[in-house]
């Protein structure tokens, strides 16, 4: 059983799960709630600073709020580590800085000791009209808020010892402003934390539509092609841990400032259009435990 | 640096921390948010069932909502384990049962893999008048919602292989109903997850008062004295991981149905009255990493 299968089992047992956040109706609006686990071994390569860890742990949850068109309100950070000497101040200031940028407040958390560093961030948000993974209609444009390959490139730089640039790439800005604008425009939305391919499959499945992606339209981060000369598109499609928003929008509502068009919703199947040929896009990517 | 010192450093850096929950003003009411880490090594002795683990992880967070006089709304459960075979169904149903008993809903979570089992529950609640640790006045009665020693006794039973009764004790019911009634009556409140002694110190410090506890008035769980013939009161005072509510209340508002009177608020110091003598109650207890 890998992580995706686990999450599917949770979704089967927990009816409110299955979107980037849980949605809790609250008077005339909705509260959004999401939690994310990060581990030293799988999420923070050697050279990651405590500040970057704190930032990224929080940003991952804020990205889930953004993906539903929500306004971030408050964040909790629970953290467990073998020891805390030197770790806490950077971790807290990174977490607080990521909150501040997104207009949220770090309001509390929990700390203790364990063999491995584990960070668990929880974000609370609010959305009058949450945008879900379900809602795309055939004919909608499929769009992306920004370039692909950020984490693939960052890990490449970590492995080469280019730590400053690697840490900078790791401290991504969740697409909160974009998400708030898209709340009134998008028909379906998801962040691509599991990679573009798997995220596209999740959105298609939830919406009951197909998606066709144009490989030539995929925006790649500057430096990705140089780092991975033969497999930049492969990384862009499957690598995961990117935190752009993937959304569908009716053609008449699209403006170029909202993001790059990378394809469109069709009646069924998830397809990659490349070199004049259309082939099924496999539902694979990066997954803990796979 | 032990866990309490860590938490004090968080409180210094995060102004909203320092109560059982973060309090977020929300229109005419308040949202409450709390998160708790539990680890296999320190929190779940051999023989703890997955159902009990799920229940207890959720109950620990719901107890924080109860401790502020809040109504639990929603819970997230993030969990990491070396493997998931056989663990997930019990964990989820225990978590859901604890939510249901408290009137909350399990709305989502996150799952992945790590060397040690780690559970992180987050609870969202609501309180029109949150009861804080600050607010006790000299002369208020000091009261407790129920008996002491539950976790001390449960661990004793786990060590003796009396697993069914140990698991039953471990699955405590957070004092949600009591907390809701006390929201209109108590001047200060805290759950005694860190032990009665330390919790009393935290409440006294936040309120700027002293507390005097009468050893003879301490309610002990049936079986505690038999399990620990020479140190039952010691366990009751310092053991921790009890989840009763400790609260102060003006004498005129007290009714016996609210809980047992164990002392009163005084001008300064935290004292234990025993055998006609008053001695300072040390600020110690059970703490991760100490």
Could you give the topology of this structure?
The structure is a homodimer of 290-residue chains.
Chain A: H1 3-13, E1 22-26, E2 29-39, H2 40-43, H3 50-66, E3 71-81, H4 88-102, E4 105-113, E5 118-127, E6 141-144, H5 150-159, H6 163-170, H7 176-182, E7 188-191, H8 196-207, E8 210-214, H9 224-227, H10 232-238, E9 245-249, E10 260-266, E11 270-274, E12 277-280
Helix pairs in contact in A: 3-4, 3-7, 5-6
The level of helicity of chain A is 25-40%
Number of domains as seen in the coordinates of chain A: 2
Q: How much is the radius of gyration of chain A in Å? A: 18 Å
Largest sheet of chain A: 7 strands, mixed
Q: Do you know the CATH topology of the largest domain in chain A?
A: Phosphoribosyl-aminoimidazole Synthetase, Chain A, domain 2
CATH superfamily of the largest domain in chain A: PurM-like C-terminal domain
On the 0-100 scale, what is the average pLDDT of chain A? Answer: 93
Query: What is the CATH architecture descriptor of the largest domain in chain A?
Result: Alpha-Beta Complex
* SSE sequence of chain A, one letter per element: HEEHHEHEEEHHHEHEHHEEEE
Care to give the gist of this entry?
The first copy, chain A, has ten helices and twelve strands. The first copy, chain A, is an alpha+beta fold.
Descriptive report:
The structure is a homodimer of 290-residue chains. Chain A folds into two domains: 20-127, 60s Ribosomal Protein L30, Chain: A; 141-280, PurM-like C-terminal domain (Phosphoribosyl-aminoimidazole Synthetase, Chain A, domain 2, Alpha-Beta Complex). The longest helix of chain A has 17 residues, at 50-66. Chain A is globular. The mean pLDDT of chain A is 93. The first copy, chain A, has ten helices and twelve strands. The termini of chain A are close together. A seven-stranded mixed β-sheet of chain A has the order 7-9-6-10-8-11-12, sandwiched between helices. A five-stranded mixed β-sheet of chain A has the order 1-2-5-3-4. Chain A has helices at residues 3-13, 40-43, 50-66, 88-102, 150-159, 163-170, 176-182, 196-207, 224-227, 232-238, and strands at 22-26, 29-39, 71-81, 105-113, 118-127, 141-144, 188-191, 210-214, 245-249, 260-266, 270-274, 277-280. The first copy, chain A, has 290 residues and is an alpha+beta fold. At the A-B interface, helix 1, strand 2, strand 3, helix 4 and strand 4 of A face helix 1, strand 2, strand 3, helix 4 and strand 4 of B.
């Amino acid at each position: 059983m890998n992580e995706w299968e686990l999450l599917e089992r949770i979704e089967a047992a927990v009816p409110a799960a299955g979107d980037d956040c849980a949605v809790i109706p609250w008077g005339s609006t909705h509260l959004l709630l999401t939690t994310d686990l990060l581990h030293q071994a799988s999420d923070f390569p050697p050279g990651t600073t405590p500040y970057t860890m704190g930032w990224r742990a929080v940003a991952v949850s804020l990205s889930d709020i953004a993906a539903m068109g929500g306004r971030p309100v408050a964040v909790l950070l629970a953290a467990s580590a073998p020891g805390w000497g030197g770790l806490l101040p950077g971790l807290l200031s990174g977490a607080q800085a990521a909150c501040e940028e997104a207009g949220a407040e770090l309001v509390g958390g929990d700390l203790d000791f364990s063999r491995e560093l584990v960070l668990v961030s929880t974000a609370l948000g609010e959305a009058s009209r949450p945008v879900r993974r379900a809602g795309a209609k055939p004919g909608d444009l499929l769009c992306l808020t920004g370039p692909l390959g950020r984490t693939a490139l960052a890990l490449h730089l970590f492995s080469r010892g280019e730590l400053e640039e690697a840490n900078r790439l790791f401290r991504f800005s969740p697409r909160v402003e974009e998400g708030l604008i898209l709340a009134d425009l998008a028909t379906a939305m998801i962040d691509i934390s599991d990679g573009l391919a798997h995220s596209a499959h999740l959105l298609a499945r939830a919406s009951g539509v197909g998606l066709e992606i144009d490989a030539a339209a995929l925006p790649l981060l500057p430096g990705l092609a140089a780092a991975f000369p033969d497999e930049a598109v492969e990384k862009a499609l499957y690598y995961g841990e990117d935190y752009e928003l993937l959304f569908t929008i009716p053609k008449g509502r699209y403006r170029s400032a909202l993001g790059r068009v990378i394809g469109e919703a069709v009646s069924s199947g998830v397809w990659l259009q490349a070199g004049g040929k259309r082939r099924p896009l496999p539902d694979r990517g990066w997954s803990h435990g796979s």
